[in-house]
Amino acid sequence: MPYEIVSGLKPTLSLLKVFGAKAYLFNNLHKKDLGPRGIVGYHMGISPDSKGWVFWIPEKGNFFMKSASVKFDENTFYHVPKDQILSSIQVSDLMDSSMVKEIKMQDLLICSWNTQSNLCDVIPTSLKEVSLLPDKELWEKAINDEINSMVEEEVFELTDLSTALQTQKVSNILSSKWVFAKKTAPLCYKAHLVAWGFRQTRGINFEETIAPTLNFGALWLLISMAISNNWMIKTFDVKVAFLHSIINIPVFIWPPQGMAIDCGKVLKLKKALYGTKQAARCWWKHLTKILQDIRFQPNKEDLSTYTFNSNIGSVILWIHVDNGAITCSSNDLLLTICDHLNRALKIKWVEEINGLVGLEIAQRPKGLLIS
Predict the structure, then answer these.
(1) Is the pLDDT of residue 112 over 90?
(2) Is the CA virtual torsion 85, 91, 92, 97 positive or negative?
(3) Higher pLDDT, 180 or 1
(4) Chain centroid to CA 155
(5) Is the link from the previous residue into 186 a cis peptide, with omega within 30 of 0?
(6) pLDDT at position 79, please?
(7) CA-CA distance, 328 to 345, in Å (whole number)?
(8) I want to staple 25 with a disulfide (CB 3.0 to 4.6 A). Which of 67, 164, 334, 365 is the partner?
(9) pLDDT class for 77, splitting at 50, 70, 90?
(10) Three-state secondary structure string covering the chain
(11) pTM of the prediction?
(12) Mean of pLDDT values over 332-339
């Protein structure tokens, strides 16, 4: 091949895909909600500045997106019925060919990427991509907030690489990356430093990993009881949840991109960083202890649900990772419980249940519509 003759290198052909082919773009972030995990797009070419491809997203109009987490269907293409095409052509739309300038597809893509509304919908996959976005200041604030939270919660301590190598091999020291997400209701930019936990080895830098999983039955019960008895419901989001919980075995990570650390140093985790295999379990045990200290009891049949009973009233609390809901027969008792939790954790409270774990919940005259 000419490229190989000139450069002496074999070209990488894995990125070559059929132009215009249908593709499914997957959201590979660590999402907690149950929203769509992918979107349909059509292949427009190879991304010039990052790994992956460029796709046209029909359902979003004149919108182009870059992604590397993709499944191609190279036998399917975008189809517009012929009669629809013909009916859309107007004589006034026709122009003298001498007045038409040649426009390359790349120019069209660049024009679309530079549209502010489109770029503000992009979720970056690296610090480099953050620097190219019009809302980069909001992403940078999210990164700084996360770093400040890690310092405040004493998530890690600096240690010499030589010290880490006395107990673990170089291959056991984990890399990490920044993972970004954006909530829309309300608008919130998030950045999490995530360890490459898939490289952990049982018995060396992790042991048990079991933690409660999502149980909608318990959530339906909580909502039903609240509606039937006219109890107040609050939903909540625990900020930097995993960073509150102590890790139970030494884990070392390399300094992440964007964090200035002296040469020859690594980070020794003191708290359960996102991505580590034991993070969910460490957080669950930490939360359970906090709740038991204020007399909550875990449900034996469903460990994601906790109850509190006293002469003042009854409380039901349901949680999935760091999102949850709480209802109580007494508004005063509910406020007291919320105050106790605020002292132990950083919590954002919302007095509505729409948007909880990705659910759309609408109030209706005869109850709630959940979808």
Answers:
(1) no
(2) positive
(3) 180
(4) 20
(5) yes
(6) 65
(7) 20
(8) 67
(9) confident
(10) CHHHHHHCCCCCCCCCCCCCEEEEEECCCCCCCCCCCEEEEEEEEECCCCCCEEEECHHHCCCEEEECCEEEEEEEECCCCHHHHHHCCCHHHCCCHHHCCCCCHHHHHHHHHCCHHHHCCCCCCCHHHHHCCCCHHHHHHHHHHHHHHHHHCCCEEEEEHHHHCCCCCHHHCECEEEEEEEEECCEEEEEEEEECHHHCCECCCECCCCCCCCCHHHHHHHHHHHHHHCCEEEEEEECCHHHHCECCCCCEECCCCCCCCCCCEEEEECECCCCCCCHHHHHHHHHHHHHHHCCCEECCCCCCEEEEECCCCEEEEEEECCEEEEEECCHHHHHHHHHHHHHHCCEEEECCCCCHHHCCEEEECCEEEEC
(11) 0.62
(12) 94
246, two tokens: 């102590």
Query: Whole-angstrom Cα distance, residue 173 to residue 140?
Result: 26
- Nearest by Cα to 316 from 288, 335, 297: 297
Whole-angstrom distance, CA of residue 166 vs CA of residue 248:
19
Strand-pair partners of 370: 361
* List of long-range contacts for 184-190, beta carbons under 8 Å, 24+ apart: 185/354, 185/355, 189/135, 189/138, 189/139, 189/141, 189/142, 190/142
Beta bridge partners of 42: 22, 56
Structure tokens at 65: 């997106």
Is 195's pLDDT higher than 90?
Answer: yes
Burial zone of 91 (CB within 10 Å; 0-12 exposed, 13-18 middle, 19+ buried): exposed
Q: 256 and 176 in contact (C-beta within 8 Å)?
A: yes
Contact 182, 189 (CB under 8 A): yes
As a whole number, mean pLDDT of residues 336-364 equals 78
